[in-house]
Amino acid sequence: MWKFCVVFVIVICFSVSLTLSQDFGYGGKHGPEHWSEDFKRCNGKHQSPINIDLVNVVEREFSPLEFTNFDAKPTGIQVSNNGHTVLVRMTFAEGDEPRVFGGPLADRSPRAGYQFEQFHFHWGENDTIGSEDRINNHAYPAELHVVLRNLEYRDFASALGQDHGIAVLAFFFQIQGADNPNYNEFVQLLSTIERKDMSANYTRPVRLQDFLSYDLMNYYSYIGSLTTPPCSEEVTWIDFETPIDISEYQLNGFRQLTAHDEHLKNNFRPIQPLNDRTIYKHKLSAPPTDKMGSIPFVNVDNFAGRISASSAYFYLLSTCLCLCLRLGLASAGFSIYVF
């Protein structure tokens, strides 16, 4: 009996040791410089994040990116603290799942497209650090990653590590004075998930597009990896040029999580060597004339507001011109009727 107990204890201790060795963080013995000791692919040659050096990017005109169901209302949104990031999962009615086609994704998967899996965040303890990718060595205070799965694969696990199996849409954040209204409830939920494995649900689920930048036409693209273990490569990255606005107060909602878990302090991986890779910048065939021209999906309420404001302006202008014309002709002895 005692021999069985000894074996049982040894197995338990080995399992605990293995679990601890497979953990990762952003500092100390589990920091990024040690990831490859437990996750061999983290030592690959095509790793992310990278610095996007604008002098060396290659302009390329991709086919249009198509965003389907990004305006669909989800049936639920769960926000979780997994000990490494704030993870957001959205559930949708069958057929309403957000999908992306075209652009750099069409190179190896022209018809299948990519389906939304989850999104998560990386941030720093101050405004000078936080984003994973950088542009001309400039770091933004935070970054959003929307993770997509190639529909040629039945699930995320089978797509992982496959050529063009996974894609990431990356969005930078920039500090503005006013709160971003689309992030108000999200920031409130952060205070309820202070510790690892805590989750909270949206009371009124919002659309995926509301979390993103308005400009989805100007972007950079390259082939890289997941920025956390297992660091699987062959990931298509699309980094959008226009940042998302967020206030200092809202961003501090992320930073307050570090008071309860050091793993969440500066949860971004250092820049990795570019090696033999090429970074592409999407070349627009015709530059958009305004912000609305940059949106592949239209926010109907905002668009209606712009149309009504424009109509009022032109109505006032035309009325003034007609009045001036009528007065001028009347003084010359003519009569004019304005309908």
UniProtKB/TrEMBL annotation:
InterPro entries: CA_dom, CA_dom_sf, Carbonic_anhydrase_a-class
Signal peptide extent: 1-21
CDD domains attached to this UniProt entry: alpha_CA
Keywords, alphabetical: Glycoprotein, Metal-binding, Signal, Zinc
Protein origin, superkingdom: Eukaryota
PROSITE patterns according to UniProt: ALPHA_CA_2
Gene Ontology CC terms, in alphabetical order: cytoplasm
Gene Ontology MF terms: carbonate dehydratase activity; zinc ion binding
Domain Alpha-carbonic anhydrase: 22-283
Cross-referenced SUPFAM superfamilies: Carbonic anhydrase
Similarity field: Belongs to the alpha-carbonic anhydrase family.
Protein name in UniProt: carbonic anhydrase
Source organism: Drosophila willistoni (Fruit fly)
Gene designation per UniProt: Dwil\GK13282
